[in-house]
Amino acid sequence: MGRSRTRSEAQPVTMKAAHAFPMREYIGAMALEMARMARDEGDGTLALLLEQAAAAAGQPVDVSH
After folding, report:
1. How many CB atoms lie within 10 A of CB 37?
2. For residues 3 and 47, is the Cβ–Cβ distance under 8 A?
3. 15-40 and 44-57 helices cross at what angle (nearest 10)?
């Protein structure tokens, strides 16, 4: 993993982007829970895909368009 950016290095967050974060956080959490369930059922391939979806949900989103 990389180092965390400080506040001065971070990009400013627009109001539209700020509203997108709670939904993405929820989707990421649900994807991680489903990944755990898939792994418990022996489906490692699906678990990995769900973990990738969770990671994508945690990335910044471009809502400028």
Report:
1. 13
2. no
3. 170
